[in-house]
Every structure is written in structure tokens, then in C-alpha cells.
Design brief:
- With about 800 residues, the chain is α+β, with helices and mostly antiparallel strands.
- Among the domains are: about 5-310, Beta-galactosidase, Chain A, domain 5 (Distorted Sandwich), CATH 2.70.98.40; about 345-465, no CATH class; about 735-810, Maltose phosphorylase, domain 3 (Sandwich), CATH 2.60.420.10.
- The protein is about 30% helix and about 25% strand.
- The chain contains 21 helices and 42 strands.
- The strands form eleven sheets. Strands 1-2-9-10-11-12-19-16-15-14 form a ten-stranded antiparallel sheet. Strands 6, 7, 8, 13, 17 and 18 form a six-stranded antiparallel sheet that branches. Strands 20-37-38-42-39-40 form a six-stranded mixed sheet.
- The longest helix is centred in the middle third of the chain and has 21 residues, at about 320-340.
């Protein structure tokens, strides 16, 4: 069943009931100020770093679910209700939530009163606007009271929910006119504060949560709202909030708008020391002054719409398949931008506390958004590279505020170095900007150790060359892409040492997956060397890649599919010889994607094994058979119940690898079949099973071994978004950026029909018509650019050229 519908014209998903299977959320903000907001107005706000600069509180996994939020209470006689339904959960005469691109709108109706509130973060200011419209739809005057509500977080979200002996004594606020200022910790060595104001006189306020709610009450029936009058409480310690009371009377048909602004501001530290407990409100007042009228808010909203219109115009498809068009043109690219902003740090599944920006994650996310904002991709690459160690390894995560590596997580994920090559190569292919390779970048953020980015890539490459195991395959370290495959999690069999199994340096578990990565991104590194004139390094790199390629064929092939790894004892992982976990998805997807085994016929055989052994109606599971007991030698992967997460769940992130590999061998029907199974627009019809948002990808879907087969978890912040966009845009629809120009090589279902593409690439806009008169799955027989026949399938790049008219015929 469905709980809403896609409105493609307005680029919205419209939710028609508040009782969705899980909270269905949206992200507001594009640069430094962000909010997460659910379909019932739940969520939270932060500035730059969800851990260190959290403005509002949220209670994860609390009961009832999805508290706190940004709430508006309406007291109309004895009836108390919210436009977004929560937290009072009063039955509404009408409810609708529209999640759009950078905004969400909530409309509720009760007793002839309509309330509609639009939430968005303007492009240039560190604030969230809440534009509330109230209308009397009845034939009699309507008198009622409105109460706003947010609960402040005491900045450090981790400390906020643990250090009560201190935090219950530090809350401080100021109230001036219609603005409530949250200045907790300002008297310390801080220069920031938050504020919540409205563009109208207020009839009361509260800043103490205890006073607002009353003893032993929750957000669902606050005492102040029930009484119909604020207490004008001034918080001192305990839990500070911000509530405005506005009493209104509307004539029949009359409308009233109010603008609430939730914002973040800073004062210069030098200014602060002269009066350490008094904030200079000027920065806040400057923001508030910009949003006092409907016209000002409308202008900011129009600018936001224009921003997204421009971004999404960079890749656009028009086909006979509306679901493909919907995902490619709107939701997939939108999600790619959100993952760029958030990495894996802040969602309804990631608290914003335990994880920062991921080294691997952010590099992969870059693959999906580099065409949208290449200049910010450039910044991100340099930030990531600065967390690399001098030996080529890297911190697995870093904090977005400090850009320092996360020492709590540390390093040792041996696939990380290669993702830096992947991201950098994608950026240069997109932009042609080789100057990034000359940028001086520190190692471990130590400026005394700075070296050109190209040197960082060199060390990434050599880290793999210098860390191989007994078979000549790359060492896995703590793990590779599959964080839960921990093959070195104990020393050895009783009485034996690591020296029995390999180099004296220690753990010797090997990864076939990293080997496949090394082939793909090692070749990319070699090409960058060649294009920058370092032919000797290019030749050396190509020879190292060839060695690994041969080792994969020799020791990474299991007879019908690729092995996954070798554990610390040299035992095969992902082999028919194993009792459980005989075949894994990762190497079957990434080896053909990297070109391994294609000419030898092994790629086709491996992909056939995927369909036979791993395929299900909801997607391809990660492995089979599922592990039914804990295997110490394999680690965390076997700690999950069968069918969940890495233990035979449908990990949506690597389904696109298999789909891309199918395009490599020319099977468009199969590639598209795989694409459809995890694509949100195609799973909307069974939302009651899938449960997560039907407009964005989730990380994981429960596999066929699970109790709840088809149920998804961990939506929004997943590499699935970027890899799926790479799959559909570059491999199925077939527009792949190369160093020489834009490659056109679609691999589509035989009945997909003709289609048109618009692609902005470097300075040019490419208008591409693809015709498939013989209904083939792959094969360009004719490529015409501006009326001229072109040999091959790469449109030559012409510096400065603005428009390209391209005709492609398949056959």
C-alpha cells in the first residue's frame, strides 16, 4: 500500500497520512546550517557539526517515536492540535506533508481552521524559516491561541545526554521583544548562541520546559497550552526551551501569516571578553531583519528553488519510463547532494554523535555529486586527503567541524587509500582540472608534512603494493568495504603464530575485493600519471596492476564465481568449500566492473552465479548461505541474525556494482532488472513492507533469510545513492565522463525505447537523442555530433564550446 504519492511537477513527495510505517524525513540546508524534519514535524537542527553544534534536542528511538521536533500548538476552545499531527496526535480533518527539494510543508485542518507551515533553510543565512499561514475557512469569527515550541540542546549533543550533574545547572536564556536567545555556555570560551524569533508581538513566552509542560506531563499535553496562557518563565538551568504565545482572531475567510526564525549566530571572541555573560544580539538581529515580511521569505524561497533547478539541470533524461525520469531527474540527485553534505553523520539512524565524515564514504559520495557542484567536490577531496597518513593509509573518519581524523575509530581499513584515487579521478574526468594534483595537502593535518595531492595518490597506490599477503593479494587489515568482515580479529589457531601463515608483520588475511579495486583505480592512477607526463610511474603502476590481475584469476577464482577473501589462516572465504557464506556479492560485482575476467569469460559466469544463488524479488543479497552461528575467524559479519545487514541482507549499496557489471558484458535487460528492485519509485507500491521513505534509497533491506523479508533500514545516508546514480546515468543511460570527452554507450532493456538526455559537462551543454530501432541492449552503431559522423563513442571535448547536438543510434 502507499501512504502518499509523487508530484513530479512540483518535485515533491506528498504524504497523505501522518501514520507512515516509520518517520519519513527530509533534509533542509545546503552549506553550514542544517535541519532534519519528519512528516510529523519531528527532527533537529545543527550548525556544521551535528555533534558539537547541535541547536535542538532529539530523542532517538524514544517512545512514542519521533520526539522532539519544531511544534506549533493551536488551542481552539477545548481542542488542541498540531498542523503536523504530532505531538498531540489529535485527529485532523485534513493532513498533508509535502517534502520538496530543501523544504517541507505541513498542512492541517481542524474545526474550520487551516494551518500550513513551510520549513526551509535559506541559501545565504544560518537559520531555518518557518512560514506559517492560518486561515479561517468557517462562516463565523475564529478566536484561538498559537504556541510555538522548540527544546534547546546544550550544544554538544553527546555531552547533553550524559553529563546531567553539570548540564542541569548551565542553561541560560535571554528574552527581548519577540525573540528568545539561547546562550548556554556563552560565558565559557564560546562565541556562539542561538535564537528563535517571530515577526509579530507576542502575548507570552516560556523558556523553562518544566513550566511549559507541567509536572509529569509530556509534549502531547503541555500544561501551558491546556491553560491557554504562557507563564513567562525564564529558564535557569534544567532544560531550556523556546515558546511564543500569540493570540489571534480571524474573521470568516481571513488569513494571517507569521514568520518564525530559528537561527545560529556568533560574536567575535575579542568582543565577548568585555562582557562574558552578555551576548551582542546584532548578528541575530541582522538575520531576523531579513525575514520580516512575506515578500522577503518568498524571495528566499524562490532563490532556493532556482538553486535546485540549476543543479538538477546538469543531468536530465526524458524517456517513456516516468519512474526512471523521476529518480534520475529529481530524487536520486537530491539524495546524492544530501549524502555529500552529511556523509554518514546525521540521520534518523546515525545520531550525529558517533560518526563524522567517512574517508571511504565521502569519496564514494563524490562519485554521485561531482557533476552538480565540482568546486565543492574539489574542496572535499582536499579535506579528505589531509587526513591521510604518510604511509598512504588514513583515518577512517574525520569530524566535519575540525576536519581532524577521528582517533576513536582510527585506521586500518585497507580499502580506504584507493577511494581517494577514485574520487580524485572522477573529479578530474568531470572537470579536466589537473591543477588539483599540484595542491599542497598535509598528511594527518600536519602542515609540515604537506605534499602535492599527486603524492598522496602515489602513497595510496603504494600502500596496496606494500601490503600484500601470502597469495600476493592485498591485505584486508581491520576490514575492507565490508566493515563487518573482520578476518584478523584473533591471532591464530591455538599454539600457532601469524608467522605460520605469512609475513612477520602480523595479520595476513587477504581481500579479493581490494584486489579488484586495485585493478580499477590502479589503472586510473596510471592514466593520471601518463596524462601528467610521468610515464615511468605510469608504466610501473600498470605492471603492478597486471600482477594483481593475474593473481585474482589464479587465486581469486572459485570455479563459478570469485572468492571474497582469505582469512588469517589462509582459509577461503566465499568459496563452495565453505559450510556457510559460499558466495559473496562484492567481488562478483566489482571484478567485472573493473574489467577482471571479462575477456576470459569468467565475468559472465560469476554474474550468472549471482542470479542463481543471490537474487531475490527485493534485490540481491550480500551472501549465501547465511551464517547461522558465530564464526570467530570472520568477525562481526556473523554476529547478525540471518538475513540482516551484512549477514545475507540486501545491501543496496553494492547492487549497483552488479548492475554495472551486467552493462560491461552487454546485458541491459538484466542490468535494468537489478536497478528496479531497489529503486524507490518501484518499491513505493509495497511501502507497508519496505517501511522507509519511498523517495530515497536505504542502506539495507532484510534478505530472504530474515523474519521480515523486504523491510528496509537506514535510509538517506548511504553510498547506494551515489553508486546507483553512477549506474543509471553513466552505464545504463550511458553518459560516462572520460579524460578525452563525454562517452556515450547506453546499455538498456531491449524495450526501453528512444530517449533524450541533457548533460552539462565542463563548459558545454550536450543535447543527446538516443534511438534504438532494432531494440538492442547495447551497441552504438552511429554517433553524430553537430551533424558530423564521429568514430567510436566518445564525443571529443572542445575547450570553450557551449552547445553540442548529438544523435546516437544503437544497433
Amino acid at each position: 500500500m502507499k501512504f502518499g504519492y509523487f508530484d513530479d511537477q512540483h518535485k515533491e513527495y506528498v504524504i497523505t497520512t501522518p501514520k507512515t510505517p516509520l518517520p519519513w524525513i527530509n533534509y533542509l540546508g545546503n552549506r553550514e546550517f542544517f535541519s532534519l524534519i519528519s512528516n510529523t514535524c519531528g527532527g533537529y537542527t545543527f550548525y556544521r557539526d551535528a555533534r558539537l553544534l547541535r541547536l535542538t534536542r532529539y530523542r532517538y528511538n524514544d517512545v512514542p517515536c519521533d520526539t522532539n521536533g519544531k511544534y506549533f500548538y493551536i488551542k481552539d476552545g477545548d481542542c488542541i492540535w498540531n498542523p503536523g499531527w504530532q505531538p498531540t496526535k489529535t485527529d485532523l480533518d485534513f493532513y498533508e506533508c509535502c517534502h520538496g527539494l530543501g523544504y517541507s510543508r505541513f498542512t492541517g485542518k481542524k474545526k474550520n481552521l487551516q494551518a500550513s507551515v513551510l520549513f526551509f533553510v535559506p541559501l545565504e543565512d544560518n537559520c531555518e524559516l518557518q512560514w506559517l499561514h492560518l486561515k479561517n475557512d468557517g462562516d463565523a469569527p475564529k478566536t484561538f491561541s498559537l504556541f510555538s515550541y522548540v527544546e534547546w540542546c546544550l550544544w554538544n549533543a553527546d555531552d547533553d545526554m550524559k553529563n546531567f550533574q553539570r548540564n542541569l545547572s548551565i542553561g541560560e536564556v535571554e528574552i527581548e521583544d519577540s525573540v528568545i536567545y539561547h546562550k548556554t555556555e556563552y560565558r565559557e570560551r564560546r562565541d556562539h548562541f542561538a535564537f528563535y524569533g517571530v515577526n509579530a508581538p507576542i502575548d507570552g513566552f516560556d523558556t523553562s520546559r518544566d513550566a511549559f509542560l507541567g509536572a509529569y506531563r509530556g509534549n502531547d499535553h503541555p500544561q501551558v497550552v491546556e491553560k491557554g496562557a504562557c507563564s513567562n518563565s525564564v529558564a535557569s538551568g534544567w532544560s531550556p526551551i523556546a515558546c511564543h504565545q500569540i493570540d489571534l482572531t480571524l474573521a470568516p475567510g481571513q488569513e494571517k501569516s507569521l514568520i518564525f526564525v530559528l537561527g545560529y549566530a556568533e560574536n567575535p571572541l575579542a568582543e565577548k571578553w568585555s562582557a562574558p555573560d552578555i551576548i551582542n544580539k546584532k548578528p541575530a538581529k541582522e538575520i531576523l531583519a531579513k525575514y520580516q515580511t512575506d515578500a522577503q521569505v518568498e524571495q528566499a524561497l524562490s532563490a532556493l528553488a532556482a538553486y535546485w533547478e540549476d543543479l538538477l539541470s546538469k543531468y536530465h533524461v526524458t524517456s517513456s519510463n516516468e519512474k526512471v525520469d523521476r529518480m534520475v531527474n529529481i530524487w536520486n540527485q537530491y539524495q546524492c547532494m544530501v549524502t555529500f553534505n552529511m556523509s554518514r553523520s546525521a540521520s534518523y539512524y546515525e545520531s550525529g554523535i558517533g560518526r563524522g565524515m567517512g574517508f571511504r564514504d565521502s569519496c564514494q559520495d563524490l562519485l554521485g555529486f561531482v557533476h552538480l557542484i565540482p568546486e565543492r567536490a574539489r574542496e572535499r577531496i582536499l579535506d579528505i586527503a589531509a587526513t591521510q597518513f604518510i604511509d598512504g593509509s588514513a583515518y577512517h573518519q574525520y569530524q566535519p567541524l575540525t576536519k581532524k581524523g577521528n582517533s576513536d575509530i582510527g585506521s586500518g581499513f585497507n580499502d580506504d587509500p584507493l577511494w581517494l584515487i577514485a574520487g580524485t579521478d572522477a573529479y578530474i574526468r568531470e572537470t579536466g582540472d589537473f591543477s588539483i594534483l599540484d595542491e599542497a595537502v598535509p598528511f594527518d593535518n600536519d602542515v609540515s608534512l604537506a605534499a602535492p595531492l599527486m603524492e598522496h595518490l602515489h602513497r595510496s597506490f603504494d600502500y596496496i603494493v606494500n601490503h600484500k599477503g601470502p597469495h600476493g593479494l592485498p591485505l584486508i587489515g581491520r576490514a575492507d568495504w565490508n566493515d563487518c568482515l573482520n578476518l584478523n580479529c584473533f591471532s591464530a589457531h591455538p599454539g600457532e603464530s601469524f608467522q605460520t601463515f605469512g609475513p612477520s608483520e602480523g595479520p595476513v588475511a587477504e581481500s579479493v575485493f581490494i584486489a579488484a579495486m586495485f585493478v580499477k583505480y590502479g589503472n586510473a592512477y596510471a592514466k593520471l600519471c601518463r596524462l601528467t607526463g610521468n610515464t615511468s610511474e605510469a608504466t610501473r603502476a600498470e605492471k603492478e596492476v597486471a600482477k594483481i590481475y593475474d593473481v585474482i584469476l589464479k587465486d581469486g577464482w572459485d570455479g563459478k564465481w570469485f572468492l571474497r577473501a582469505y582469512d588469517a589462516h589462509g582459509q577461503k572465504v566465499g568459496s563452495h568449500e565453505c559450510e556457510e557464506g559460499q558466495i559473496y556479492i562484492e567481488t562478483q560485482g566489482f571484478c567485472p566492473l573493473a574489467g577482471v575476467g571479462v575477456k576470459e569469460g569468467l565475468a559472465k559466469e560469476a554474474l550468472d552465479s549471482v542470479k542463481e544463488r543471490l537474487d531475490t524479488k527485493y534485490g540481491i543479497v550480500l551472501l549465501q548461505p547465511a551464517y547461522t552461528r558465530y564464526h570467530l575467524e570472520l568477525g562481526e559479519i556473523t554476529s547478525y541474525p540471518p538475513g540482516y545487514k551484512e549477514n545475507a541482507g540486501i545491501f543496496c549499496h553494492n547492487n549497483p556494482w552488479v548492475s554495472i557489471s551486467e552493462t560491461v558484458i552487454g546485458r541491459g535487460d538484466r542490468a535494468f532488472e537489478i536497478y528496479q528492485k531497489t529503486c524507490p519509485a518501484y518499491v513505493e507500491e509495497f511501502s507497508e513492507i519496505h517501511r522507509t521513505e519511498p523517495y530515497v534509497y536505504s542502506q539495507m533491506i532484510a534478505g530472504r533469510d530474515a523474519a521480515f523479508f523486504g523491510e528496509a533500514k537506514n535510509s538517506w545516508l548511504t553510498g547506494t545513492a551515489a553508486w546507483t546514480f553512477v549506474n543509471i546515468s553513466q552505464h545504463i543511460l550511458g553518459l560516462l565522463p572520460t579524460h578525452e570527452g563525454l562517452s556515450v554507450d547506453p546499455c538498456i532493456p531491449h524495450d526501453f525505447g528512444d530517449f533524450e538526455l541533457t548533460r552539462k559537462f565542463r563548459e558545454g551543454t550536450y543535447h543527446i537523442q538516443v534511438r534504438n530501432p532494432k531494440q538492442v541492449e547495447k551497441g552504438v552503431v552511429s554517433l553524430r555530433v553537430d551533424g558530423q559522423e564521429i568514430a567510436g563513442n566518445v564525443i571529443p571535448y572542445v575547450r570553450g564550446k557551449k552547445e553540442y547536438q548529438v544523435e546516437v543510434t544503437l544497433g
